[in-house]
Amino acid sequence: MKILIADDSRVMRQIVIRTLRQAGHGGHDIVEAENGREALEMVQTERPDLVLSDWNMPEMNGIDCLAALRAAGSDVAFGFVTSEGSEEMRQRAASAGAAFLIAKPFTPEAFDDALRSVI
Amino acid sequence: MTAPTTVPGYDASVPSLDDVGAVTDDVWLALVGEDEVLLPRPVPPGSPFDATGAWSAAVTVTGEWQGVVTVELDEQVARLLSARMLALPEDGPVNDGDVADAVGELVNMVGGNVKSLMPGPSVLSLPSVAAGRAAFASDVVEVCRLDVAWRGGPVRVCVHVPRP
Question: In chain B, N or C: fewer CB atoms in 10 Å?
């Protein structure tokens, strides 16, 4: 399985990769994007099975990236990893076609539960 | 969590100190692990952040609730936290870019969780980070301040709202 991690923070991308490993999902291929626009392009070039995306990013945010992917006909599994875990944000994410929203701060168990819903 | 409180004289709900403390504790625990908690640090009201060297960061919330969430960290705390977040040796160098990235992510997480406590809809800004103490324009007022310590170094989290 190939996972695209989109976050403008290199530190957070490292933490997400480490948490995936701690959650028992360390064997996947990982590719990284620094913002939503780069993620949008990399979904075409890298063909990931899952996108784990921050919400708030420069250039293009996560929700706009997801909307652009769905508008382009992509049905790639997409989940948010974001500091904003309110019910309002969860509803916006689900309405846009996200499979899950993991709120920061998160645990390996939260990652495992979320990934099991799409693997 | 407790309900947002209202500060007399301000036409805005503000998060309680308990809530800001709980959010900060949760974020810190997730970033550095369970073995080292933030400790209370009594500081007289109105005292400037007293670290010798400091990093500071802010995020702004705009919409139904308006506010600014800031984090100030002692220089050594910021570098140790960054090393922890990047799984680097604590006695090794951490470049300023990585510290800025880590401190920005810290305020993003604290600010995003504070936003989630407040009435919506609203929008969270990208973090701004600086090497040095935070300074604020006179059009906002501090309504909540948390002073804690990690490994003996000071950490401060504040919430500001627009002045009425």
Answer: C
